[in-house]
Structures are given as C-alpha cells and as structure tokens.
Design brief:
The complex is a heterodimer of chains A (387) and B (365).
Chain A: H1 7-23, H2 35-50, H3 69-81, H4 90-103, H5 106-117, E1 123-126, E2 142-146, E3 149-160, E4 167-173, E5 184-190, E6 196-201, E7 210-221, E8 225-226, H6 232-245, H7 251-267, H8 276-302, H9 311-333, H10 352-359, H11 369-380
Parallel strand pairs in A: 1-4
Antiparallel strand pairs in A: 2-3, 3-7, 4-5, 5-8, 6-7
Helix pairs in contact in A: 1-3, 3-7, 4-5, 4-6, 6-9, 7-8, 7-9, 8-9, 9-10, 9-11
Chain B: H1 7-23, H2 26-33, H3 41-50, H4 68-80, H5 87-101, H6 109-127, E1 133-136, E2 143-144, E3 151-156, E4 159-164, E5 169-172, E6 182-186, E7 194-197, H7 198-237, E8 239-240, E9 243-244, H8 249-277, H9 283-309, H10 320-332, H11 337-348
Parallel strand pairs in B: 1-3
Antiparallel strand pairs in B: 2-6, 3-4, 4-7, 5-6, 8-9
The chains are: A alpha+beta (387), B alpha+beta (365).
The structure holds flavin-adenine dinucleotide.
C-alpha cells in the first residue's frame, strides 16, 4: 500500500490542471436539457476532445488518451475542481463505450467509439418501458429479423438525453416465445430512423431531461446488434455494472459538492440551524470515504480484478450522500433555499435547489436503491430470494 | 499510488484468522469470563509466536518489523474473534510508546537514559509474550488491562511515567463486557519513574491516542463483520411463516445497510493506518474519521443483528452479545464520537482547509 502519487502521476495532474484552467468556459453553460444548452455542451466536448481529454482511459485509436484508471480518477478530480461542464454524452462515454469495448466486433469499435469519445454522436439509454421499470426483464419492445434488418416495435421511456440525442442503445425482445431475460438482444438505433418517434418529457425541474421513444416498424441493420442474438441481458448487465460501479459517478463530483457545502456553512454559520454543522462534517467524511473506496477499487482493477455485485453498494452510498448533502444545504439556506435563481433575494443561494431536485433522482435511476439492497442481500450476503 | 494490501499481508491476516477461529472460540471466551484474571497466558504466548505482540518492533528487538498497515489487519481479526487479550494495550499502543520514548534523547538525560534502559529491558520480553504493557492515557478514565500488565505506562499531566504493576494500587472496575479488565490506578509519580516530559511526552501521548483509536477502529471492523455474518447465518436458518426470515425484505434491507456502512468504513481505516505508519501530517483527522466510521458501523451492526435474532439474541446464552458488548466499548475507548467529531470538524471547517477533489491524499513529510 502506497498512498502517495508518483512523480509521473503528479505530472499528469499538473498537465490536466493546466489544460483545464486554460479551456474550461468561464461562465457556466446552459442546461444540456435545453436545445441551446445541448449545443453548448456539444461544443465543449469538441474542445475537450481536441485537447485529447475527452476519454482519458480509452485507447488512443478509439479517441482516448490511453491512460489508466488511476489517471482517470486524477483527471476527474481536476475536472470537478475546475468546475468544468457536465458531460452531455455520459451514456455514451461511461456506459456504452466500455460495453462496446467488451462486446463489440472490431468493426463496431472502430465505427462507434471515436464518435462517442468526441460526442459527435450523443447517446440515450433505452431500457425502461412503461411496464418494465425495476423489473427490466419484463421488456416488451420487439425486434423481428427481416433479411439483414431488425424491425423494431414498441416503446421505451425515461431515456435520459433522449430529447437531444442522436442514437439510442436498448434491449429488444428478439425471440417472441421467450420469457423474462432470455430472448432479449442489445441493439444500437439511430434516432433519425424512419418509424422512430421521440417525445420529450419534462422532469421535476421542468426541463426535458428525458424522453419516451416509440418504434413503429423501424428498420435497423442486424449489424447494429451488440453481442449475441438473444444474449442482450448479459451485455446490459455489464453496462449496468459500469454505471453503478465506477464510471458514472466518480468521487470528485461528491467531493466538490461537499467542499461547496462546507463553504456554504461557513458563509452562513451565524444563521445555520442547529445540527447542520455536524451534518456538514459528516457529509465531507462520506465523500472522502467514497473517494477512498474508489481508489481501492481502481487499484484492484489495475491488478486484474473485476467489478462485481459490490457496485450495488456504491450506488446506494453515493446517491444517498448526494441527497443528504443537498438537504443539508437547503436547511442552511432556510427560506432563501426555496427561491428560484431569478428571485431578487436569491443572491448567494447558488444552484442548490436545482441540484437538490436532480439529487432526488439518484436513488431511482440506474436501478432503484431498493433493487440494489435486494442485490446486496441476495448476491453478496447470500440470503434467499424475497419473492 | 496503490491502495491494496500485498499477498504477504493478506496471508498473515488469514493465518491469524484461522488461528483465532480455533483458539478463541466463544466457549473459550466465556470460560475466561469466569476466571480470576480473564487472561489466557498460553494463548498470549501463541499470539506472540505468531508475531502479534511485537508486530511493530524491529526484528533486532525480537519483533516483526511491521507497521500499522499490517497491524490493522491483525487487529481486525482480534475483533472478529472477540479476543479478550490485551492486544490494543500492548501491541498497538504500549509497544510503540516504549519504542518511541527512547528516541526523545533531547530531553533531560536521566529520563532519556531511563527510557532507553526500560525499552531495552522490556521490549524483547513483550515481543516474546513474556510481559504485558498497559497504558494509562488521559483519553481513558480507567486503565484497561492494568491487572494483567507487568509494566504500566501512565500519563501524569505532561509527563509519561513507567512503573511495574506492583508499585501501583489497582481497583478493579467491573464493566458491561465481562471480557474487559478495567482498573483505577493509584500511584505516586516521581522523578525516578518519569521517562518523558514536556513536548516529548505530549508527542508520545498524542501518538498513543492515535494508535489506540486506530486499533479500536480496526477491531470494530472485525466486530461489525462478525455481527453481520452471525445475523446473516441466523436469517438463513430461522423459519417463520413457512420460510426463512432472511427472505423478508424488511430484514434484507437492514442487513444490506449494515454491509454498506461496513464497506465504506473499511477503506477509511486502512487509509488511517497508512497515515499513521507514514506520519502523514493529517493523521489525527484520518484516525478520527476511521474511529467514527468503524465504531458506528459496529454499533449499527450490533443493533441490527440483535433485531434479526429476535428474543434468542436477547439472551445471555446466545453468543451475539460477545460482539455487541465489544462494539459498545470500542465506541468509548480512546476518544468517543463527540471527541473525534470535534477533531474532524476543526480540520474541515478551518480557514483554507485543504478539502475537495484532489485533496484526499497527502504526500509524506
Ligand atoms: C432522472 C432519471 C433518469 C432515467 N434515465 C433512464 C435512461 O436513460 N434509460 C432508461 O432506460 N431508464 C431511465 N430511467 C428509469 C429508471 O431506470 C427507472 O425509473 C427505475 O429502474 C425504476 O423503475 P420505475 O420508475 O418503473 O419504478 P418501479 O419499478 O415501478 O418502482 C417503484 C417503486 O417500487 C420499488 N420496487 C419495485 N420493485 C421492487 C422490489 N422487487 N423490491 C422492493 N422494491 C421494489 C422501487 O424501488 C420504487 O421505489 C431514469 C429515471 C430517472 C428518474
């Protein structure tokens, strides 16, 4: 165990910091869940890719920097430290990309990965359906083979970034006689395909952060299948592992929120309600614990380990920490915490309210925390199934 | 940067685990409760043979030449086994205190010489399992293990004194955990017993506090894991309403929460061990964080494990309380939660505190 950075690692940090300081937009971009904001975020991704920083841990041939996961963690720390924009293509870069690397053919890797890295193609994730939420194996949307094409029918919903994305990856039932997780196939669908209709849905904050997607005899080439026919469940589970386990929520994000929370408390110390001081300090400790755990995971992965069911522990921990930090911030702000940014008295309230709303979705998406607790109970602790 | 243990470290841990599983059974612990000293001299020498007692001593002094990063893994196992022996007092706190006392040669010559002679005389015996050290630290109102100790290291204001047990008057203070040996110690400090004073003594006592709290945190990890294992095993086997109670989600989710708390305390404890071993400037904060996280995980595990067991868990006969009582006492030893929370708060809320992304690790000085 050696918890100090090598000169090379320190050099990498310095390089990332210098580049980010020179390039991160000075004014915050508009929300990527609006048309203008989405365009601004795509432009930022082009700059990031131009500097070679878009996908730090990916091989250079796929548009990455060829760095290792530890360097990725360092980069993330610098990224959040610099207050850089959120990543509009997180479905692509953090979820689909690693999945294509594991399950894709050489042609698929060459075709898709560079455009994911550059966010020239922004992705939406199409798993949930009106009747398949937590119970994802209840998926009903179908893909029927017709020559060298699939013909897609049915509906997906809650697809994040769906309103402004170019492509969707999703699970479709290819074997009509199949049940549950058998007979599903992982298919990559251009959203401008004829027969595909995207209908944006306003989220709790009023912006169109996700969408429903309807498929009406939409034809996509069989070559867009990722992994084997009827083998989509395993491919999707790998993606879910990346989502919960490591990539989607790097610790720097929560450490930055914790840092802001400490600053908010210090600014409002005189008026902060009792108990908030301890909460603030505990939130900081939890963010550090999450970072420490991630460093351990990365060390394990670099030593040849794999991410397993323990990803469910992460998902619970970061999502509940995020809610707790925002609740604490709003308690510190008191009545001002209820004001929208345009309110004349909203000075100094920051974007706590907006990000509080977003934090509330953390325990729901990427598999609800109840489902994660089921996974921990059954897969990690070995308890009998609950139903 | 590599946050992982070596195969050798893990091998030593599993050796100690297997050993304690055989030698420190719940029946053995209960037998000790009934004994006069609550100490098993044979078991203690076997632990010394395994290298536990002198883990932190150089090989030249009969030790293993290990540091806190190795020791926490062994302490975790002593927690898992609810071992009643004085490993925290002796191996984790007493030994390094005595070891470091000899390095304070800047102090009065008499003290330094005494420290030197004392450590030369005692440390090899301690490493061999032939002597036990107990430490009276201001953080603890009672001196744990004084009754079985041969040598007492006692704080007195800004001084550290060393005396043989016979030179002090001990009053046993029976405690909630029958395995605990708490004593009030009456003694008379004198120039002849003083081995460090002033800054040197303060440094020794600060280090002793950090080592003691770290050791409690490491034991608490083992205690928490054992409580979770017991609860899970019981939940798989006990049936109600025609099925295993472990299939009820209300219990599953509680047990999952224990697992989350435990697994997010673990890396905090390991980092604190690294900080103490490599003398990182913020080690006191890291230790406090570790003590809070691990002892809270253990107490939470105790609470849930009891609930999962129902009435059988509420009996003296069921072994669960061996670990429940340990969890409770670990919360108090070497600084309780408010004490450690204060230390972390002072760091986090200070002007210009180095917090936020990229500040998790500090280079050694
Ligand atoms: C902001 C946001 C973004 C999202 N983005 C995407 C996306 O990009 N792509 C996508 O496919 N989906 C996305 N989702 C959908 C998300 O994956 C689902 O909401 C989630 O899987 C839960 O499904 P559901 O909403 O149908 O709730 P339900 O499954 O109906 O669950 C309702 C409640 O019942 C509980 N529950 C259900 N089953 C169990 C059980 N077995 N044990 C205990 N409790 C249970 C749940 O935990 C929850 O509390 C997103 C959701 C949100 C909020």
């Amino acid at each position: 165990m050696d918890l100090s950075y090598t000169p090379a690692e320190q050099g990498f940090r310095a390089e990332a910091r210098a580049w980010l300081e020179a390039h991160v937009p000075k004014a915050p971009l508009r929300s990527f869940d609006t048309a203008e904001g989405a365009a601004e975020h795509r432009a930022w991704e082009r700059i990031l890719q131009g500097g070679g920083w878009a996908m730090v841990p990916w091989p250079v041939e796929y548009g990455g920097r060829g760095a290792n996961l530890l360097q990725w963690l360092i980069f993330e720390e610098e990224y959040y430290r610099a207050g850089a924009p959120r990543r509009i293509n997180q479905n692509g870069i953090f979820l689909l990309g690693p999945t294509i690397m594991e399950f894709g053919t050489p042609e698929q890797r060459a075709r898709f990965l560079p455009k994911i890295a550059s966010s020239e193609e922004v992705w939406a994730q199409g798993w949930s359906e009106p009747n398949a939420g937590s119970d994802m194996a209840a998926i009903q949307a179908t893909a029927r083979i017709d020559g060298d094409h699939y013909v897609l029918n049915g509906q997906k919903t809650w697809a994040s970034r769906g309103a402004f994305a170019d492509w969707l990856f999703g699970l479709f039932r290819t074997d009509p006689a199949s049940e549950r997780h058998k007979g599903l196939t992982f298919v990559l669908v251009p959203l401008d395909t004829q027969g595909v209709t995207v209908r944006p849905i306003a989220q709790l904050d009023g912006e169109t952060g996700f969408a429903e997607v309807f498929f009406d005899d939409a034809r996509v080439p069989v070559a867009n299948r990722l992994g084997g026919e009827h083998k989509g469940w395993n491919v999707a589970m790998a993606t879910a592992g990346f989502e919960r386990g490591l990539m989607l929520r790097s610790p720097a994000r929560f450490q930055e929120t914790a840092r802001k929370l400490v600053a908010l408390y210090r600014e409002n110390e005189a008026s902060a309600p009792g108990g908030t001081r301890e909460e603030v300090v505990r939130c900081w400790m939890h963010a550090e614990a999450y970072a420490l755990d991630t460093y351990r995971t990365v060390s394990r992965l670099l030593g040849g380990g794999k991410i397993g069911f323990e990803a469910s522990l992460n998902k619970i921990f970061w999502s509940e920490l995020d809610v707790r930090m925002h609740e604490t911030a709003l308690r510190i702000l008191g009545h001002r915490g209820d004001l929208l940014p345009e309110a004349p008295a909203a000075q100094g309230v920051g974007d706590w309210l907006d990000s509080y709303l977003f934090s509330l979705s953390g325990p729901i998406y990427a598999g609800t925390n109840e489902i994660q607790r089921n996974v921990i109970a059954e897969r990690i602790l070995g308890l009998p199934r609950s139903f | 940067m590599r946050f992982a243990f070596t195969d050798d470290q893990l091998l030593l841990q599993s050796t100690v685990r297997d050993f304690l599983k055989k030698e420190c059974t719940p029946e053995a612990v209960r037998a000790l409760w009934a004994s006069q000293t609550r100490h098993d001299a044979t078991l203690w020498s076997k632990l010394a043979e395994l290298g536990v007692c002198g883990a932190l001593l150089p090989e030249a002094q009969g030790g293993m030449g290990l540091d806190e990063r190795d020791l926490v893994l062994l302490l975790e196992e002593t927690g898992r086994a609810a071992l009643p022996e004085p490993v925290v007092s002796t191996a984790a706190v007493g030994v390094p205190l005595l070891r470091d006392a000899r390095n304070h040669l800047d102090e009065g010559e008499g003290q330094a010489l005494r420290a030197l002679r004392l450590s030369d005389a005692w440390l090899p015996r301690v490493a061999a399992g032939d002597a036990i050290v107990a430490v009276g630290h201001p953080a603890n109102p009672f001196v744990a293990d004084a009754g079985v100790a041969d040598l007492l290291l006692l704080a007195h204001g800004d001084e550290v004194h060393a005396l043989e047990r016979a030179a002090a008057t001990l009053t046993h203070q029976p405690a909630n955990d029958p395995a605990r040996r708490l004593f009030s110690v009456a003694w008379t400090p004198s120039a002849a017993t003083c081995i460090a004073s002033g800054d040197a003594a303060r440094r020794l006592l600060d280090a002793a506090l950090d080592r003691g709290a770290l050791a409690c945190a490491a034991q608490a990890l083992g205690v928490a894991e054992q409580l979770l294992d017991l609860a899970v095993a019981y939940a798989k086997q006990r049936e109600q309403f025609g099925r295993a109670i472990g299939s009820f989600q209300a219990l599953q989710h509680k047990l999952a929460d224990v697992k989350v708390k435990l697994e997010y305390a673990r890396p905090v404890v390991y980092k604190a061990a690294h900080s103490v071993a490599t003398q990182i400037a913020t080690r006191a904060v890291d230790v406090s964080h570790a003590k809070l996280a691990a002892t809270e995980a253990a107490s939470f595990a105790a609470r849930i494990a009891l609930q999962v067991h129902g009435a059988i868990g509420y009996t003296w006969e069921q072994d669960l309380h061996l670990w429940m009582r340990r969890a409770w006492s670990l919360e108090r030893d070497f600084g309780d939660a408010p004490f450690h929370l204060d230390r972390v708060s002072a760091f986090v809320l200070a002007d210009g505190a180095p917090i936020g992304p990229g500040h998790t690790f500090r280079q050694p000085e």
